[in-house]
Every structure is written in C-alpha cells, then in structure tokens.
# Entry
Amino acid sequence: MEIQYLVIGLGFVVGILVGLTGMGGGSLMTPLLILVLRISPVVAVGTDLVQMTVTKAFGAWQHHRQGSVDYRLALKLAVGSVPGALAGVGFLTLLERQGVEVDALVSQVLGVALVIVAVLLFAKMVLGRWHFFGGGDGSEGFSLEQSRWLPVIAFTIGALVGITSVGGGALFMVVLVSMFPVMAMRRVVGTDVFHALLLTSVAGAAHWGAGHVDFALSANILIGSVPGVLIGSRMTAYIPSRGLRAIVIVTLFAVGLRML
# Structure
C-alpha cells in the first residue's frame, strides 16, 4: 500500500475535529476527498463509508462497555435506514448502468446535504434541543412503541447516506433528540454511534460491491483519523468546543454551497 501523506494529514485534522466536537466526520472527509484530492465523488462516498465503519466500530465498542446503547431503538432505526442505504446505492448503480453521469449528481446532492446538516447543527447549537416532532404531552416526546414513523424517517435519511455518506450521525442525532428529548444524552450518543456502525457497514459493503471503494485510500485516511480522534478527545478538557463547532458548521455550509 502506498503511503499518501496528504490523505493521512487530512484524516488527522478531521479526526481531531471529530474528537473535539463530535461531528464533521463524513460531512468533512467526503468533500475534502472530492475538492482537494479530486477523487471521483462516487468513489469518495464509498471509500469514506468504509473508513467510517472502522471508526464507528471503535466508538460503538466503547459505548457498549459503558452501557450507553439502546439496542431496541438502534435496531428500529436500522429497519428503515439499512434498506434506505441499499436503495440509495442501488439507485446510483442503476444510473451508472444507464450511462448517467452520477458524479455530478452525487456532488449536487452532497452539497444540499451539507447545507441541511449545517443549518440543523446551527439550530442545535443555538437552541440546545430540537422539538420538531412533538409527541405525548409535548414535553416527553414519543415512546418507542409510539414512534411508528421512525423507520420511514430512517429510510429517507439512510438513502441520503447511501448516496452521499453524509447524515449517518448528524441527521439521526436530530431525529433522536427531537423524538426522545428526555433520553439521557450519553444514551442518545451511544445509540447513534451503534446505529451508525450498522448503517455505514451495510452502505460501505454495497458501495464495495458496486466498485466504488478505494481500500488503499481508506487505509491512509484511518492512519491519520484514528490517532486524530484520540488526540481530539483528550483535548476537549482544554479547548472549548463551542467555538470549534461553530467553525465546523460554517465550513460545512460553505463547502455545501461550493459543491452546488
């Protein structure tokens, strides 16, 4: 495997940001691969999903050890999101076979997704919690049994993840905090990470089957991102993350507009 120092460096920087702020992994790495390294958008998406699967596996194991995963809720999300991701990848593959220029389509959809994620993350930072869905008496949100629309919402976001690699963490975090506002945040995060592992592993495998994954590139990203995440996580005790989150949000918004 050829060592690509620029890729390792980008992975390291993104890893630090993820460790410091808890966001920006897929949302930053995929557009960086496209805009900086001129990687094909479809290959960038598939490659990023594969490396995210490895990263999420480390995080999911840690949350499992801490007992902060709601497995019933994660699996209910996966019932919708996994078929959605497969549908998204299948849609791209079908367009490829028909001779459609899918790279241009992925770039445009990715740009829209980044802008949406940036706006929602800004709302989260300003408001603290979302209450888009309501439910119950307006304060407790839905119970797991009441959330019959959850798989439908998850299918839609899963399809977006399959096409762009963006939203597996951030958009599902919006859904979880909105629909289950009384759930402890550590449990929300743990559930989100474990579900993201299920989603990215299936979406990454589907892109692999479609020939959209550069494993050498993915390995180089991981060489940088894994130590970056660990260092960034340790730095949270010394650096205020709110300002960094604002920087990431502005960056996502700007990059999203750049890709439209």
